[in-house]
Each structure stands twice: as structure tokens, then as C-alpha cells.
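Usage

Read records sequentially. Each one opens with the input sequence:
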Amino acid sequence: MTTTDDHPILAKVRKLLALAEDPAATAHEAETYTAKAAQLIADYGIDRALLAATDPGSDPVGDRVLDLDAPYAADKADLLSTVAAHLRCRAVVRTRTTARGKERSAHLFGHASDLERTELLYTSLLLQSATGLARTPVPPTEHAAAFRRSWLAGFRMAVGHRLADTEARAETEAAQRFAAAGRSSGLVLADRSAQVESTMHAAYPRLGTARARSLSGSGAADGWAAGQRADLGGRPVGTTKARHLLG
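and closes with the structure output:
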């Protein structure tokens, strides 16, 4: 995983989240710190896009593969795909059958800075969702797996809604900065997205569209509420603890 410790914006993100996670912080203070961290993550993406507009080699298109471990591998794939799409990356979810059963992985495509943002945020959200799900009791009349999948869907939808707002706000505020550099922010970002799409389709020329999964549990509202509270600028964390909690 690419390290982000040397970038000043992400250093600020870490400090803000440390304040938000302080037990002494009030709920209002924690929300304020978290909102600022999320905005800085978006600003980082814009800064790198602006730099790459004049120096394309500074932020090339690349790819990386992330394993999606059971349980709830399909739900993790949905979360990763949502985060990737909002941070200007694309994810191709791959499934293969082995002697141990189905194994899933996600092949991510994007510019280096956006891949960095996506993996950083997804890894943090994976742990946050696992922690929130572990704290949410399953109603006695419901099947545990069905409830948890609907909870994870609600969490993912809330995160996607918030990321859309944050990224759009960053793009709007950056328009003048791009104009000062003689560029249109809309054209620059559209061109970056087109490069990512081209790279993905070159690797997967027969790419299909996944069918929507039906969910029967009643946990979506609780998951949505947890997604509204989630940190959107989280620090890198290992996935072992997240896999344990989701197990």
C-alpha cells in the first residue's frame, strides 16, 4: 500500500481524526473534526489532479488488487466499488471457485493519488462498519446474516451519499484554481476519468454489469445512521481486525 505520511494534507487529516477520536471530544466537536478531515481528503484529490494537469507523469494511471475476504465478501465489494466510484476510480470485482469455495477480489483502476485515497478510506470504513455492526443487536425474529447484509447496505449508501456531496463541493471550490492555471476543472477531471475507463476496458474488454442483489433484512436504517457518523478521512488500519469483527 502506498504510504501517505509525507503529504501535508493527509498529515492534517490524521491530526483532525485524532482529535475526533479523543474520548474527551463532544459529539459536536467530533463531527466537526470528521467533516473537515473528509473535505481535506477531497482537496487532496483535487490538488493532485491540478498538478497532473501540468505534469501528467506526477499522477499516472495504475491499478492494484484487493482481496475481499469472507464473510460478507459481496457486501465488502459493494462498499469498495462505491468508494472507488466517488473517488474517481473503478473497481472490477472478480470471483473464482476453488476447493475452499468462492473467492472474491477487486481489481482497482485509477490515478495513483485516487487509488491511494480509495484504499485508505475503504480500509478505514471496513473497520468502522465492522465495529458498528458488532455493536448492533440482531432482532430476535430475524435471520442474522440477512439483517447484517441490509445493515451493511445502509452503511454503504450513507457513505456514498456523503462522499458525493464532499467531492462535488471540492470540485466546485477548485474551479477558480484550475481556471487560474488555464484549465477547466470539469474537462480535466473528465479526461482523468476517461483515462481510467480506457485502462479498465483494455484489461477487461468484455466487462459485464453486475445484477443488483435483493436484501430481506431490516438493518438498513441502522446501517445508514452508522454510515452518517463514519469518518471519511480515516487513518490506514489493518484488515485483520475488521475481518475478525465481521466474522
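Summary fields computed downstream for this record:
- The longest strand covers residues 101-111.
- The chain has one domain: 8-246.
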